[in-house]
Amino acid sequence: MPKVPAIKLRDRAAALTAYFSPRVIGEVNDAYVKVAKIKGDEIPWHNHAEEDELFYIIDGSLLFEVEGQTPFTMQTGDLYIVERGVNHRVSSTEECSILLVENKSTEHLGETESEIVSTIEEQLQEYDEAPEV
């Protein structure tokens, strides 16, 4: 069995050059594991009609808004799962690095149109400079 090196999440996130542009770093069964950087409030309200979505905060803090709930702030090490069909959005005043776990069929912002939407082809692209693992 081939030896797979451990993934250093902070290094992978630090190698990202754009905000709101997730990059796939691995696969687990029918799901992608992604890292992204968030800064600002450009992510619109959206949902994923058929898929749940897992958020894990690698570094920083993330304001999480879920329709019908009081907004809450996630901190480094926090994890939250958004259930399918639930409207949500995230933002951060300072740079925040996150890990996402999403089904391979999950559209970046569901069916919501936005200038920041990344296609899965874009999310599968290599980094500008490949980080060491």
Structure description:
β4 and β5 (about 70-75) form a beta hairpin. Strands 1, 2, 3, 4, 5, 6 and 7 form a 7-stranded antiparallel sheet that branches. The protein is mostly beta strands. The chain has 2 helices and 7 strands, in the order αβββββββα. The protein has one domain: Jelly Rolls (Sandwich), CATH 2.60.120. The two termini are about 20 Å apart. The model is unreliable at about 125-133 (pLDDT under 50). Helix content is about 10%, strand content about 40%.
Strand-helix topology:
Elements: H1 9-14, E1 23-28, E2 31-40, E3 53-59, E4 61-66, E5 72-75, E6 79-82, E7 88-103, H2 120-123
* CATH class group: Mainly Beta
Question: How many distinct domains?
Answer: 1
Mind telling me which CATH architecture this is? Sandwich
Gross morphology: globular
Q: What does this entry show, briefly?
A:
This protein is mainly beta and 133 residues long.
Features:
single chain, 133 residues, mainly beta, Jelly Rolls, 7-stranded antiparallel β-sheet, globular
